Amino acid sequence: EGQQFTVYAAVAEEDKCVLAVVSDISRMKRLEQMRSEFVGNVTHELKTPLTSIRASIELLKSENRDAETRAYFYDVLDMEAERLQHLIDDMLALSRLENMREDPAAHPVSVAKAVAASVKRLKPAAQKNEVTVSCQVDPALYVCCSPMRLEQLFGNLIENAVKYNRPGGTVTVTGAVQREAAAVRVQDTGIGIAPQHIPRLFERFYRVDTSRSREIGGTGLGLSIVKHIAVLYGGDISVESKVGEGSTFTVRLPLACPKAENNSLPD
Ligand code: ADP
Question: Where is the Histidine kinase domain (predicted)?
Fold first, then answer.
């Protein structure tokens, strides 16, 4: 259904032999469309901060700007450069993940430590948004992966839970063994996600509200990275959400034995 084919046919030796080649081009067309969409998205994401950077430079060049105005445009330059840096970092992370079938450097890592490191890094953002983050992760919970990638997975989910929250809201991270896997839930009391967006949420550059997400400072690649990390280590991710009430993202990863731990995350 929905497939397209190209049929090549050749007739040889006075109708004695017929050669037909049926080629499924729907996959090729889909890949080509995805590639061109990706290039379009990247170009747009690069152009937006660049336009702002060029406009700020132009304004800074004129001599009759007071100190306050100049300081404002330097801040804009700083912010847009940071945005470009995030975009490049996320694109590199995603491209590496897309080319990996398994991680030979994976080893048992404490989930509680990875969550704690992510929460620590996001504390200033949570304070700024007036959001309280609390964690309850079983210290005996270990999964086999790279500590850096596990921290990025939880970091992206917790960052979203903080960003798409409301002042005075909460983020609750829980981790426990569930059906013989490590299940980590990141629950927020934020804006929620309407059901029609859920199936596309993990696609690269997919955003529910593009202008709002950009304003908040996202690259649109965070959840795609999360999904790739979960799948790389044999896990999966699911989401439940209600508009106006909040969202819960649940990551499930195969359990690992903690004995061989070689964890480089700080305490
Ligand atoms: P972004 O960088 O835009 O945050 P993500 O890939 O992390 O990109 O998320 C994709 C989109 O999913 C976001 O733009 C936002 O619309 C929506 N989203 C992600 N997490 C949440 C959440 N916890 N609550 C509400 N919406 C969310």
Answer: 41-257
The ipTM value here is 0.98
Query: Which contiguous run of DSSP H or E holds residue 30?
Result: helix 26-61
Mean pLDDT in residue range 118-123: 97
**Residues 67-77: pLDDT tens digits?**
899 999 999 99
The span from the CA of 113 to the CA of 52, in Å, is 39
Q: Is the CB of 110 under 6 A from ligand 1?
A: no
Q: Look up residue 222 and give its DSSP letter.
A: H
Q: Quick check: CB of 189 below 6 Å from ligand 1? A: no
- For the chain, the first-to-last Cα distance in angstroms comes to 53
For ligand 1, say whether the CB of 122 is within 6 Å of any of its atoms: no
